[in-house]
Here is the input.
Amino acid sequence: MDRVTDVPETLAQPVDPARVNDYDSFAEAYSADNENNLVNAYYARPAMLALAGDVAGHRVLDAGCGSGPLSAALRDRGADVTGIDASARMLALARRRLGDDAALHMADLSDPLPFADGAFDDVVASLVLHYLEDWGPTLAELRRVLRPGGQLIASVDHPFVAYTIQDPRPDYFATASYTFDWTFGGQTVPMKFWRKPLHAMTEAFTTAGFRLSVISEPQPDPAARQLFPDDFRGLSTKPCFLFFVVEVPPSATGSDD
Here is the structure.
């Protein structure tokens, strides 16, 4: 699920676990903010689409589709898109955007996915993996539902940025959670993410059987320079998100032959 990245330098106070990451409680406000803002509309989504490449005719799973802006963009490029999300309210917004016949399913990425082996040519997972402490089961499932030769395009909070979100600074090499508050239209909501060092991310992909193809630190869409003159330079000169393209080896054995 695409997200904004406006995180305070200090950790928030502990919050009720039942309220953390509750997208149902702020779906409309989040979706409205996400639609045309700098970080999502002119940075994260264009980067995901560029890395996905030519998806015409591809069966694409949008894992953590939210209200569907990335699904819509992929569909506009000729993909046959299936979206999943853990938020019922986000899925309702996605259905409003994509139509009643859209293939949308409620599913938690921590659980087995309701799809057959090799059901998809591509999976996009935009800014969702950092909600998970353990990527292993999720990546194993994403690999399972991809055909041999298929690819996963994923983006996460950049580990260098995640490392800075605490004072005193945490152990960069540890997998640890951090909490903070987001504010949308005057509504403040508690969030919890997991940070990992870069090597732990790449090892999680390879352990799941993926072959690393691309690690990208893209620039924002140049059109944003005029639209967001006060923030464009910061986004174009500092790390924000990290993007990966990983592939399922084309042979059943996982070799390169």
Summary: The beta strands are 59-63, 80-85, 103-106, 120-126, 146-157, 176-184, 187-195, 211-216, 241-247. The chain has a mean pLDDT of 90. The radius of gyration is 18 Å.
